[in-house]
Amino acid sequence: MDFGFSEQQVMLRTTARDFLTREYPKTRIRAVFQEEKGYDPKVWRDMAELGWQGLVLPAEYEGTEAGFLDLVILFEEMGRNIVPGPFFSTVAHCSLPLLEFGTAEQKSRFLPPIASGEDIWTLALIEESASYSPAEINMPAVATGDSYVLSGSKIFVADAHVANYMLVAARTGKSSGAGGITLFIVETKDPGIKIEQMPTMAGDRQFRVTFDKVSVPKGNILGHVGKGWEIVDFILQRAAVLKCAEISGACQAVLDMTSAYAKERIQFDRPIGSFQAVQVKLADMVIDVDAIQYLLYLAAWEISIGKPSKIHISAAKAKAADAFQTICIEGMTAHGAIGFTEDCDLGFYYRRVREAEFTGGNTSLHLEKIAEVQANLLPGV
Fold first, then answer.
1. Radius of gyration of the chain (CA)
2. What's the sign of the alpha-carbon dihedral 45, 51, 54, 55?
3. 223-238, pLDDT tens digit by residue?
């Protein structure tokens, strides 16, 4: 594994950091979190002009043909600046599986508008149990002629209020497990769809989406009937790594803020960074940040060479989600009372902790996956 970055990747990181710092200062982010859309449409269009929505898409779909590691670098910079909006739901949750599993017609129809910033997508997966288990996908899809009819509800559907399309997981077979699940491409403007916002601590846009006899043509099935969980598993793996990248960037930002504050804040005629208690906190934060970055880029590199490791993906996500909370708390503690106020930027990062943990599978899910892999590897277990 080569830990170095190419000249193009360094340029991508620099461009992304400069652009996001300029277009999304914390004052603007505060305002956007209060706005109905939850993102800035102008910045969204500017991102498309930079080629970000189509970063890893082939040129035939108006993409820039970059690699998965480039996408990780971009998401890391977005996490560093806690960028609001539907980029994750569109790119991580939808464009990657469309590229991997879509038919030629589906790719030609759906990917160019994503790359141009014209269309926003989201994933409708989780139901009332709030579980990522395939056994908890119960919303039925009933075959009727050349279509399937969907009825039921999904929760925690990110950015559904601004999405043009959704990938919807529904059950087309009688099996209660992974078999019998199918993924559908559904237009959100269908009159049978009702969207209701679910308030969250993180301030991100999550919704309950209710489907009332929504008809979806069979041509809008992604992959094969009854084989949808294979695609969901693909989505969760890629989303876990890209959310880990966001967390990595956020943790680095918290570390930088805390380190700078420790040098500037004077107590007892000396910077608080000179006190051992604060130094220990900073040292622990550095170790956690480095651990996240190592696990992140190991998992991302394996994906980029076509040899994804489920255990490394789960290890990265589990470590990142756990360390994110610890780093934020340590940072706020080092700041003292002001660290817990809304005036301190650290609060934005801490409010993202729970959202970051659950997107792409929560910590418990990934620890279970690691345990399952280890149980299969160890004889007699």
1. 21
2. negative
3. 999 999 999 999 999 9
